[in-house]
Amino acid sequence: xxxxxxxxxxxxxxxxxxxxxxxxxxxxxxxxxxxxxxxxxxxxxxxxxxxxxxxxxxxxxxxxxxxxxxxxxxxxxxxxxxxxxxxxxxxxxxxxxxxxxxxxxxxxxxxxxxxxxxxxxxxxxxxxxxxxxxxxxxxxxxxxxxxxxxxxxxxxxxxxxxxxxxxxxxxxxxxxxxxxxxxxxxxxxxxxxxxxxxxxxxxxxxxxxxxxxxxxxxxxxxxxx
Amino acid sequence: xxxxxxxxxxxxxxxxxxxxxxxxxxxxxxxxxxxxxxxxxxxxxxxxxxxxxxxxxxxxxxxxxxxxxxxxxxxxxxxxxxxxxxxxxxxxxxxxxxxxxxxxxxxxxxxxxxxxxxxxxxxxxxxxxxxxxxxxxxxxxxxxxxxxxxxxxxxxxxxxxxxxxxxxxxxxxxxxxxxxxxxxxxxxxxxxxxxxxxxxxxxxxxxxxxxxxxxxxxxxxxxxxxxxxxxxxxxxxxxxxxxxxxxxxxxxxxxxxx
Amino acid sequence: xxxxxxxxxxxxxxxxxxxxxxxxxxxxxxxxxxxxxxxxxxxxxxxxxxxxxxxxxxxxxxxxxxxxxxxxxxxxxxxxxxxxxxxxxxxxxxxxxxxxxxxxxxxxxxxxxxxxxxxxxxxxxxxxxxxxxxxxxxxxxxxxxxxxxxxxxxxxxxxxxxxxxxxxxxxxxxxxxxxxxxxxxxxxxxxxxxxxxxxxxxxxxxxxxxxxxxxxxxxxxxxxxxxxxxxxxxxxxxxxxxxxxxxxxxxxxxxxxxxxxxxxxxxxxxxxxxxxxxxxxxxxxxxxxxxxxxxxxxxxxxxxxxxxxxxxxxxxxxxxxxxxxxxxxxxxxxxxxxxxxxxxxxxxxxxxxxxxxxxxxxxxxxxxxxxxxxxxxxxxxxxxxxxxxxxxxxxxxxxxxxxxxxxxxxxxxxxxxxxxxxxxxxxxxxxxxxxxxxxxxxxxxxxxxxxxxxxxxxxxxxxxxxxxxxxxxxxxxxxxxxxx
Lengths: 225, 258, 484
Known about the structure:
- The complex is a heterotrimer.
- In chain A, helix 5 (87-95) links the parallel strand 2 (79-82) and strand 3 (102-105).
- Helix content of chain A is 30%, strand content 22%.
- Chain A has seven helices and twelve strands.
- Chain B has 13 helices and eight strands.
- In chain B, the strands form two sheets. Chain B has a four-stranded parallel beta sheet with strand order 2-1-3-4, with helices on both faces. In chain B, strands 6-5-7-8 form a four-stranded parallel beta sheet, with helices on both faces.
- In chain B, helix 11 (191-207) crosses helix 12.
- The longest helix of chain C is centred in the N-terminal third of the chain and has 21 residues, at 29-49.
- In chain C, 58% of the residues are buried.
- Residues 1-11 of chain C have low confidence and may be disordered.
- Chains A and C meet through helix 1, helix 2, helix 6, helix 7 and strand 9 of A and helix 2, helix 3, helix 4, helix 8 and helix 10 of C.
- Strand 9 (186-190) of chain A pairs antiparallel with strand 9 of chain C, so a sheet runs across the interface.
């Protein structure tokens, strides 16, 4: 008998004869989390992610690259990692190099350039799939175009978020998008820059991941004012 | 939550072994308080102990043996008033489990459990106790036992009773809800940790500047007052933290034994 | 504080010298103050996260129901998890004991000829003493959570399951870094210290061949491993190296993805008073064709180590509801006085007292179960409503019963009766004889009051800091007779 069989046999022998009832998670959220307007959700998202030390810039389709440029220049950053074959990555590739920001792309497996990623990649730009208002959280589903380390290794992470895609809760996001029917290799919730309070409960940012998280909140032009 | 009951004419009084042997005046004062409210108080002579010391020490059979003896002492359908949150908690919450497998005693345990009242809760919820305060201005600090707070949920009753006394100020100690370190046999099995806890508790109580500490649990009082007295002995000073059961304090403030 | 008396840390007896270890902390005003301050901070942070009592209570009930539902279906869910993970390309391993788990992990590492491992925070890896086993096999196992890194650098063990280095001041850490990290001068600036750790560990993330992590929730229906963290080291360990090995206890499983949000919310709010952690990392497979990063191999090691013993008993099974938030220790007046190391177990505090007897046996842990005043603060804050005081009482009865069983009931517990003492048992039998015989009680208590002058002045631990217990001159029943 294998360890697996022995463990399972021991559990089966002693398992309760009937399962306890399946809890109604949806009912709890329906009772405790009222539906909010898009504006309220956007405001709440911003409030909470700013509390977690992220920087938020409202932008529109026409000016977001200007804002991105300003954000990088203000930090003296002249190099940005972007994703090819994404609309925002290609837009940055077109617009930023002429304005003095070198754009590198994640076009090969990490093994070929891991040292460069860790030592010479000061900032990155990724999209967000959606966001969560009640906790100020970005949802990222990294993929082959925008791989996992893009949102982790560079010290400054800039995220472009479509402000119309903000859910009230994590539960609402996963239910509405049917996550249980298919999750990617890696799904991420990100709620601020990397941090730790492991030394005498003193909060410090930039523990292992990005030291700064910058959110460009994309709204339709008339709302962005 | 406890069921609300109509004002009874008669109650049983379960004194607890600690009150019987170490704090008899608290028992007499509690009985007098109840009688002054027009209640007939019955004290079954054969009562001994609720069984909690053995139960919480990991000796359920011994606890059951002692508890079984108490089950038959309360034949009439009267409330059973207990001047201790800890012992009341044992009778209310643990008797039914202790006798869950005993077809004869289970109904008795359940009936008893449903009638148990912690004294301060009984005074507030059933008797709406609010006599005139006839004492002079004074400041007290209230210590609530962990059982009263977390098992019986009666921590507000003591506060309410003291709050009803016009000339009494109730001081608020630091870390009010923290255990005093008594815990029955814990204080003997882990004396170093228990000592640290009671030391901090006495320090917090004294820091309020209150004249005395009152509590509805004599176990905590034995611990707190015993440590305060020990400190005074060590320092060669007169008693610095007097204390008493809340029943004694309430009785004295509201007209005494008469 | 972290001194251990035997060579193999897996087989030492936590309750040996427990009182001495506890006393050492209790006698240090500095440590007392430092633990008190830290616990006060964590308690107030948690309280601020739950301003609405109704929300808290209903959410705790939901958390309890979710954990109980999933435990009631545990064997089925483990199979479902295995099936889903395997279909996703994750290799699943089963370990009954810490030795089995170490053998599996070292086997994977050695099979790849690897020697460098970075570790994300994993209490289960502490439970199996993986670092010892790796070191013995010539494999570098480097902790990368800042607190764990500090503790490892100091040659110690975590003293708290969420904040491993909570027993250390920034000055101690500053001295430690200056002494142990090459090229580092003394600084007690917290930001500077964190940057030192960041720089050291970034190099390690870059070089490591193996990343090891724990798991907070394993989702059976999707075959997903969920990790909760703030620092990003967990993401580093599970993304940068070519091989990721996750290890978890068999109980950390939920059937449905929708079970995760309530538990996750309870976890971060109870643990550190955060409404959410910085990262929630959901891993469902190794790197897929076309993807440019992530490990090529992902392994999951499922560890029993006594959990199936707790599972076998309806009451003790509740121990397995735990989601490892640490709120019970933050609110424990005993933990606050003695810190985590005094317990001598991987999991300290109230949860440690109720889970360790299953992992280590009652022989060696029966003393720990007495180290509680049963104040109930742990049960009051537990986000999944584990009745910790009730379980402590149960474990006391298992520890002190006459071996091999009491009242004819077979026990689910290993080493039942390990704390049995004929004298203690005789005292309680005598006590029960007196208190169950009213006439005898009357006689004994009457004698006590009449002979009160003869009460011993020294009464064991009680009189070390208290005046002796002395019966009143007249009992309540005597005073009653005088009234009527």
